[in-house]
Amino acid sequence: MIAELGHFTLILALGVALVQAIVPLIGAWRGWPGWIAVAVPAAKIQVILIAAAFAALTHAFVTSDFSLRVVVENSHTLKPMLYKVAGVWGNHEGSMLLWVLILALFGAAAAVFGGGLPPRLLARVLSVQAMIGVAFLAFVILTSNPFDRVGLPPFDGHDLNPLLQDPGLAFHPPFLYLGYVGLSMAFSFAVAALIEGRVDAAWARWVRPWTLAAWMFLTIGIALGSWWAYYELGWGGFWFWDPVENASFMPWLLAAALLHSAIVVEKREALKSWTILLAILAFGFSLIGTFIVRSGVITSVHAFANDPERGVFILAILAIFIGGALTLYAARASALEARGVFGVVSRESALVMNNVLLAVAAFVVFIGTVWPLFAEMFFDRKLSVGAPFFEKAFTPFMVILAILLPVGAILPWKRGSVAKVLRPLGGALALALALGALAFAMQTGKTALAPVGIALGAWLVAGSATELWLRAGRNPNRLRRLPRADWGKAAAHSGLGIVFIGISTLMAWSIEDIRVAKVGETFDLGDYSVTLADVEKTRGPNYMTTMATMEVALHGKHVATLYPEKRFYPVANMPTTEAAIDNGVFRDLYLVIGDEQKNGGWAVRTYVKPFANWIWAGSILMALGGLLSLSDRRYRVAAGARRGAVAAAQPAE
Amino acid sequence: MKRILLAFFLLATPVLAVQPDEILSDPALEARAREISAVLRCPVCQGETIDDSNAPVARDLRLVVRERVVAGDTDAQVIDYVVQRFGEFVLFEPQARGANIILWVAGPVMLLIALMGAALYLRRRGAATEAAPTPLDEDESRRLKEILKE
């Protein structure tokens, strides 16, 4: 019964979305206030209806209602409660329901916080947002209905893929979707602005917080996914340049570019048409990502339930929305004239360079991701594009970006001088070179990867610190009174630097040992010595496990006792490795237990992973930077004052 | 329960990729073998290298790579040997020949185009004169009045 209610509210939501897509658009065009006013309540009702459907599906998972097909296929009565709930979006149908829920949430958020927007612009934004909603609600209802019943409900379900039964992965998809779908706001604002034929500083000020929020969520989502891969897959890989990962990375790169170009629109009224294009493309790549993930046209390590019919549907959505938006863009972009004037050496130019590098980097990721498909279709060659290609083709852009970033960040608007800017950065440069040289001296005949990564990372962090120092007028007391946006910027840029250090040292300096160890045996791993103390077989709530006890010591002193496991999930008939990790600031100890060998003893894999946590710490710092900027007083004052003004104006009407 | 336990011990498939018994005694050769197997794709898996994969064919390929390395082949010869048998699908780094040249030059060419576009734009912006702001429309002047009244 509850499932039918969910199904019903989902179909109602489609109806509301249709109304919200059509009525306010006509109202804004003809100037009918009554029709314009439909947008806000419709957006709110839509989110309530979809939330009700989502709650109904969650209820089915929590109560193990095996009359629903998705529940049978993805749940099991013995599964821990956390994963019953996470199982709601751990499958195609449920995750698409989450997709439309978040889409509607963003629309409703715009309706609630958009009181200060010109009513026509708000009506058009909400109408475009609802059009996307119509498309995806139709997709869910027609091709991926989560409320599909089975004729003969079985006694128990097939269980969720055990790899997905993990807290890191439970929250990876919602964050990723918040990011993907958050970019729909930038898209809706861009299309609305094209319809109005007007883009100004106020528009950019409205778009930026949404893009910032989307980018922040994407950062967290990607970091969670990579962290999960690191500890779950059993050998400490954190990024595979897999199509599905690339699908989330391209929108991230473009959202980062969009954030920066919107600054130029807001402060200097330039780069308008490029910013609009970028907003369209950023969401376009979100849709492409959804298509890659859901259609299965590109083989990936991520096994999703996919089917060609769904792929074609999403491709049609992609073609209609991006094709339509680009056509509108071609017709209207010339009407958006730039106003700001600036020299070749200026903050504006630096931000243009940022956009060039990020956009071309996203393009490289894109062409590498779709090339196997292209090559097969047009040249009849079955080939692969993987990590070695991306490492060579993508990395140079990030290196140039990191070199330019601290300089560009402190260049003045309009016109600047490189020499003047470089002087205060001398300290940061010296520190970066010194640390790079130290790293080079410490390592023994290995690649330049780690020294270069460390130098660039230090340059970014020290450059951000220098910038804060300059902003505060070299007065420590004023540091605390700097606007949060300044701190946000410094935090995000430093976070990037820390990620650079983490990735380069982890890739260059990892130590690995693979061997057969007998119980009681001690062996060396770099400077550490590892003892396989014990191995025992036990069982968990819904799995069997082989658990080893391993002691790690450094120069005879005990460091940690770790319990790596090898689990077997009988319902899904799948083994998983649970690596045991001792986290540290400068290194992780990463231990894995393997199979029992014929001649006694166990296969063991042990690693020292230097600076591994810096990758995720840096990502968190980047997201935190976004959050700090988002909470800046200037946004709140602008939004609050406008809401107040509107509220005050109402009684007079 | 007994049956499940039995299934557990029968079906416990290997979860490690490179097994201890595969490793060559010469660390230099082993390091080369690892580097080679990190760029070769497991032919039956979904985008894993043979170095990461647990599939039996990946293990066979790792052993083949080690055989060839021990036999004195260069890295390129080993890779060619595998490509001859499995096709260029196994290469994670596509060869820069034929149509693949497009893939390799796409990034740099795009960068050049983007830089030229940016340079043109910057020159235009530098030469332009600051345009006068557009006058407020009706709605906006009303809003401005409201705000000023407060």
UniProtKB/TrEMBL annotation, chain A:
Limits of the Cytochrome c-type biogenesis protein CcmF C-terminal domain: 315-633
GO MF term (any one): lyase activity
Nucleus is among the record's keywords: no
Source organism, top-level taxon: Bacteria
NCBIfam families in the record: nrfE, PRK10369.1
Function: Required for the biogenesis of c-type cytochromes. Possible subunit of a heme lyase.
Protein name: Heme lyase CcmF/NrfE family subunit
Lineage: Bacteria, Pseudomonadati, Pseudomonadota, Alphaproteobacteria, Rhodobacterales
UniProtKB/TrEMBL annotation, chain B:
Membrane-crossing segments per the record: 101-122
Endpoints of the signal sequence: 1-17
Keyword annotations of the record: Cytochrome c-type biogenesis, Heme, Iron, Membrane, Metal-binding, Signal, Transmembrane, Transmembrane helix
Residue ranges annotated for the CcmH/CycL/Ccl2/NrfF N-terminal domain, each copy included: 6-148
Domain of life: Bacteria
Pfam family, one: CcmH
Job description of the protein: Possible subunit of a heme lyase.
Family: Belongs to the CcmH/CycL/Ccl2/NrfF family.
Protein name: Cytochrome c-type biogenesis protein
